[in-house]
Amino acid sequence: MLKAYHITYDGLWLGGVAIVVAHTKKTALRLLEEEDPTEFTDVEITKVTVLDRPMVIYNDDGDY
Q1: Residue 10 CA to chain centroid, in angstroms?
Q2: Are 26 and 34 in contact (CB under 8 A)?
Q3: Are strands 41-50 and 3-10 parallel, antiparallel or unpaired?
Q4: How many structural domains compose the chain?
């Protein structure tokens, strides 16, 4: 079963945030690291969502 992993990490300026869809935590972290973020330290998975139905994973309304 696929899961959506909400991952934060040290990045430039405001930090890095990613949502990665994968079967396992290990695969999610590997896929993100392969994207070659500038700073990939202090990595934390803050939420895991099981993708068992259609859903909104991320919605940024642009408000600071």
Answers
A1: 12
A2: no
A3: antiparallel
A4: 1
Q: Is residue 54 part of a domain?
A: no
Q: Name the strands in the sheet holding 3-10, side by side, starting at the edge strand that comes first in the sequence.
A: 16-22, 3-10, 41-50
Asked, for residue 55, whether it belongs to a domain, the answer is no
| CA–CA separation, 42 and 8 (whole Å) | 8
> 42 in helix, strand or coil?
strand
Q: Is the pLDDT of residue 14 over 80?
A: no
In a domain, 36, yes or no: yes
**What is the average pLDDT value for the chain, to the nearest integer?**
89
Q: Which two structure tokens, joined as six digits, stand for 3?
A: 């899961």
Structure confidence at residue 41 as a pLDDT band (50, 70, 90)? confident
- Can you give the residue range of the structural domain that contains 18? 3-44
